[in-house]
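Notebook entry, structure prediction.
Reason for the run: the old model in the group folder had no record of what sequence produced it. Starting over properly, with the input documented here first.
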Amino acid sequence: MRENQRIKDINPPLQYGMIGGGKDSFIGDVHRKAISFDQKAILVAGCFSRDYKNTLQTGEKLKLERERLYRNYDEMADKEGVRTDRIDFVSIVTPNHTHYEIAKTFLEKGIHIVCDKPLTIETEEAEELAALAREKGLLFAVTYSYTGYPMVKQAREMVKRGEIGEIRVVMGEYPQEWLATPLEKTGHKQASWRTDSKFGGKSNCTADIGTHVENLVSYITGLEITSLCANMDIFGQDRKLDDNVEILVKFNNNATGVFWCSQIAIGYNNGLKVRIFGTKGTIEWEQGHPEGYYEAFANTYSIFINALQKKKAGLTLTDDDLDFTSVEAGVNGVKFINKCLESSQRGAVWVNF
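New structure, fully documented this time:
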């Protein structure tokens, strides 16, 4: 407690910038509200849209100085990188296909990163970002927000302490109904870009919510996937990307798992559930969306910001300080997507992870 107070006394609130999150954005507003919960960081700069008018309107609404509202992320990285009062970190909340170039640009300027998931489209891109962050000694978080729930952290501790014994079977599911109809044909912004490979990448359902299951299971259990077998379905008319997926999984301790994720499951708004069966007991966690959603995001940012404050104060970071989804875990998420694609495209065969 005294160390946290010391850090607070040494350093004022951090300054951060945001890429994306302009007018009509859903997730950008979630990130800003989450960061504002404890006032440990203040938004001072942004490029909120490819449309500069949108950026100006958003910046005005957020009461930011006009000189720190940028036409594109390259300009923002260049100018913020040389300011004496430059941003401490940047929050990237843009569509999937832009994450790699934006994150790389800011890492090269020595700026810490928080990036929405999935980290990138290609595994090689994700690995390059992880290597660059390590080389430059920068913190890099990926916002798999469900690890921010206190009960998830409690579940992780129970597994670590051996309270359920050796894990045998893991069941994870994440059903949603929001794409049960062709919502993308109505001009719905989220549906439009997520179902379009030019913006969402090579996968929709698996990349959007399947990776949440993968990350959540990995976080709680500490297990590593060794192989998987995936069947990625497309039910929506004229859709090119998956909207339903079933995945069989094998782990490094010989445990097995079944993951199911769907965006066409009528009757479910956001039915994320994980069950972990051990030799001595079982843990089950179900998220009642949107209950605790903003708080989970806030917890993730709070841990990241605390770590960055401590790093700026010249103090050594512990594992507890780094209890947010790392860039390395983000790499695993991208690898998971691509391995599911490989398996499904080959006829739902087992592939090594």
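Summary: The chain is about 40% helix and 20% strand.
The old model has been moved to the deprecated folder.
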